[in-house]
Write a structure and sequence with these properties.
CATH architecture of the largest domain: Alpha-Beta Complex
Oligomer: single chain
Helix content: 25-40%
Shape: elongated
Structural class: alpha/beta
Largest sheet: 4 strands, mixed
Number of strands: 14
Strand order of the largest sheet: 3-6-5-7
Strand content: 15-25%
């Protein structure tokens, strides 16, 4: 299960990964007004997720043998099928397993209350958890939470209650066996190319995570990794995902659509010459393309000028924002 109130690009990426992994999930809250906070990446919030899940779990509260996995959606992708996920869950000998991270957030004063661990991430992350339905129901219905309050703090306080933790056999995935939360751990995550399709490896613990979560400021790293996983690239065909959901301009098209390509250069960027070469080689009629370039780095002004000297007259329109214009991203 997941919560999503609108169909963002991140949500579509989540659905794609679920389909590839043969995970038939359920989306809670689609089309509703989000009431859980405006800036979840930097500020507490997300109680709305708990309340949506609480309502959904009522129908499963007596199911002893049903296993539920809940994750975020906009910044999550699945990397494994149900059988693999269940196998790792069973091996942990727990009733409920939450992902773990290196930060005690949003209440750092609780840090000393956490159980010590010999190895691995020590603190709970609520972006992904898996467990038996009956236990999860008792967790999400334990006490009231307002929509604007923090979901991670809600789950943290229950985990830190030793009596409750032992009763429901709550564990954290300290070594990212199932849940890889990347905030504070991006240096541990690498792509390995030892098979047809790349895999994600946690080099710190030598694990291959099954759920990838770009929480907090690690979302850009997630964007990079998902150019390759799950099954988005391989050695023979290169970018396989590039050919998904494409349009074919056959005789049914009376006119090729006019498109906009927006390019944002926000810092010194390697291989920018090759990047612009690829833009110039796109197999699309240039008089149907409007090009928008936002550049804040003076070092790349010459690269842009070189590209435009060759191609500018061919595009339908070109608009550039230069560093001297002082316009933020």
């Amino acid at each position: 299960m997941t919560v999503a109130t609108s169909e963002t690009d991140g949500f579509k990426r989540y659905l794609r990964s679920a389909k590839l992994s043969n995970l038939n999930g359920k989306v809670l809250g689609m089309g509703e007004v989000w009431k859980g906070g405006d800036d979840m990446a930097n500020n507490p919030g997300g109680g709305h997720k708990v309340n949506l899940l609480k309502d959904e779990m009522k129908m499963y509260k007596d199911r002893d043998n049903l296993i539920i996995m809940f994750t975020d959606s906009y910044d999550v992708v699945f990397l494994a099928e149900p059988e693999t996920i269940l196998s790792e869950f069973y091996a942990m000998k727990a009733n409920v397993v939450f992902g773990a991270e290196p930060f005690c957030w949003p209440d750092t004063s609780l840090e000393d209350s956490y159980p010590k661990v010999e190895s691995g991430k020590r603190f709970l992350n609520s972006g992904g958890f898996i467990g038996y339905a009956k236990d999860i129901y008792e967790i999400v219905t334990h006490h009231e939470i307002q929509n604007h309050e923090d979901d991670q703090l809600y789950y943290t306080k229950l985990y830190l209650d030793q009596t409750f933790r032992v009763k429901h056999r709550m564990r954290l995935d300290h070594k990212s066996v199932i849940f890889q939360n990347m905030n504070g751990a991006t240096s541990e995550v690498e792509l390995v190319f030892d098979d047809v399709y790349p895999k994600v490896l946690n080099t710190m613990y030598d694990t291959k995570p099954l759920v990838l979560h770009g929480n907090g400021p690690s979302k850009r790293v997630l964007n990079t990794l998902t150019n390759y996983v799950p099954k988005a690239w391989n050695m023979d065909d290169q970018c396989t995902s590039c050919w998904e959901d494409t349009l074919s301009f056959d005789e049914d098209f009376t006119e090729i659509p006019h498109i906009v390509i927006a390019i944002f250069i926000e810092k010194p960027t390697p291989f920018i010459e090759e990047f612009f070469a690829k833009i110039g080689q796109l197999d699309y009629e240039k008089d149907k393309i409007t090009l928008f370039i936002h550049n804040v780095d003076e070092f790349h002004e010459d690269d842009i000028e070189t590209f435009l000297e060759k191609f500018k007259s061919k595009y339908r329109a070109v608009e550039i924002i230069h560093p001297k214009d002082g316009v933020k991203e």
